[in-house]
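Q: Here's a chain of 337 amino acids. Please give me its 3D structure as tokens.
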Amino acid sequence: MDGRVADASVIAEQLGRRFGDIEAVAGIDLTIEPGEIFGFLGPNGAGKSTTVRILTTLLKPSSGRALVAGFDVLRQADDVRRSIGVALQDAAIDPLMTGRELLRLQAILHDIPKNQAEARGSTLLETVGLTAAADRRVGTYSGGMRRRLDLALALLHEPRVLFLDEPTTGLDPNSRIAIWDEVRKLNREFGTTVFLTTQYMEEADRLAGRIAIIDAGHIVAEGTPAELKARVGDPTLTVTLAPGQDKIQAEAVLLPFGEPVSDGDATVAVRLAGGAGQVAGVVRALDDAHIEVEALELHMPTLDDVFQIATGRRLEGADVPDVPETQAAGPKRGPVR
């Protein structure tokens, strides 16, 4: 094992988990470097939460091995727990306690000295924007405020690795954006490695430096968002023609710029082989041919496109049943390479 991998925050090698005849996690490999925000993307039942529970010592693997913060999740589980922060979907927070009281309790559980705990707790409350609400009962908090408090609780003992399991599920758009801002801020200010699981394409795209897509227990794609999108193909430019313009002539003008794409009666489209930088050339060519246009629309490949190619279906709006992961494993799909 080379130095880079040995120093990684998370290593999984052929990690698997079975529940009877169901293979929830099917021999996956992952390496996450210190300071990364790593996105783990997939639908309900794909194996995301099962993987997180193995890496956080809440569930034993059936096969393979995993190291978190340099410690083996089976043989050194206590060391792993001291090195990580965890904010799960089903985290229980006492609604009768205040945010500040919960932070004090968390400090006691981690044997943090009182004066250090008070200073650290105040800093974290400010970081997650809860200073004004610190002495209110948690039962009065909104969903977004509870998620931000959960982040503060998970970070109180200064973990090397922070696991966030679908932190914005069920939140309204404003609360979701607020959580994204806090995750970026915590990563930037404290250098914490973040392992983020999510069902939301936009969330993974905005937050993660690297992404792995899991489907039916298998890793089907991995890379930076830009790399994954580039593997999908070239951006598509759609040109809406002005009334009375010759569509066949417009298609001939666009042909040198890339592969034509079927479109509507009043539009022509092309996959730009030279990328988005070709748009200016297309505009000049249409102008030289005296073809009038009403609009130009450039569609860049998205992570949803990546997911569709890797799994054969769309993630957003996909008809995925909300069932426990132990019931949801299925056949392996081909990886995006």
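Q: Can you summarize the key feature?
A: The chain has two domains: 3-229, 235-299.
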